[in-house]
Predict the 3D structure of the following.
Amino acid sequence: MPHSEEHLLAKSRDYVWNDDFLAQMAKRLKLKSCTNILDVGAGIGHWTKKIAKLVAKNANIYALDQEPQWTQQSFETIPNKNATQNFQFINGNVYNLPFEDNYFDLTTCQTLLLHLANPVLALKEMLRVTKSGGLILLSEPENFKNYFYYDNLNKNRLVEDILAMAKFWILFERGKIIHALGNNSPCSYLLFQLAKLNVTNINIYQNDKVQTLYPPYHTIEQQILIEELKVNLARFSEPEQYQIAQNFYLAGGGNITEFKATLEIIKTDIQKCLKAIEDKEYANVTGLAVNLISAQKL
Ligand SMILES: C[S@@+](CC[C@H](N)C(=O)[O-])C[C@H]1O[C@@H](n2cnc3c(N)ncnc32)[C@H](O)[C@@H]1O
């Protein structure tokens, strides 16, 4: 179940991008010419570290987060990785950024806007602190594309179960929006809103990273994915997470009987996947669909 803290600490966050893909994006977007950079909602710095490799060698890079504990953690892990760049770690809120207007060449975020009740206000604030001619770069997921995952067990599933599981996450997502806790598939909405703001040259790219599981599951990335499958299964039994899922599902338009029945289908399904992994009979090609949305401030 989506939960920002667990997502933030999830080790799979290091496997969202192919580095040569990001290098290609940096070329297209001319990121090497950016010297003043702001990463908003930086968490423990997964994205900050990626971005640092793509921008000017003498860049000033600000990593801002509203949670002091994350700022502290990135402060402890990131500094002096590249002595020619200067890193600053700042507590602050995307709705009220502590910077003057027109300051940054590049203002970026990763998996921030999907968590916000008011992403448009956040976008406006990010644009305010960006120079005219500067870039904003949003790395946000499109989780909707993952609701129909297709693995080598799929032929054994009832079509009704596949549809029920997809419906579960669609209603969950709608309920989350209704509770004003964000939108797990925000890209179309962000694009629609961004196009109305003071920007030009909007570009969108989808990551080319595919997460795969296949026997003998020996890579670190595969081990992490399997671990996360187990964590996801356990989370369904945590009362707080169960309640959140139920609240979202009902707000999204589902009913309680269906919720309980589908949760059992999902749990059984994950257990079957884990068993197939144990038996070395499981393969899965999962795209974690993340879009890079860029725009230039007018
Ligand atoms: C899912 S994490 C993403 C962290 C990081 N960008 C990454 O890619 O790993 C979302 C982060 O946004 C931060 N955040 C949420 N709302 C915020 C706000 N209003 N202002 C600043 N940061 C915020 C959270 O504290 C969390 O660290």
Observations:
- The mean pLDDT is 92.
- The pocket of S-adenosylmethionine is lined by residues 4, 7-8, 13, 41-43, 46-47, 65-67, 70, 93-95, 110-112, 115 (CB under 6 Å).
- Strands lie at 36-40, 60-65, 86-91, 104-110, 130-141, 199-206, 210-213, 284-287, 290-297.
- The first helix runs from residue 4 to 9.
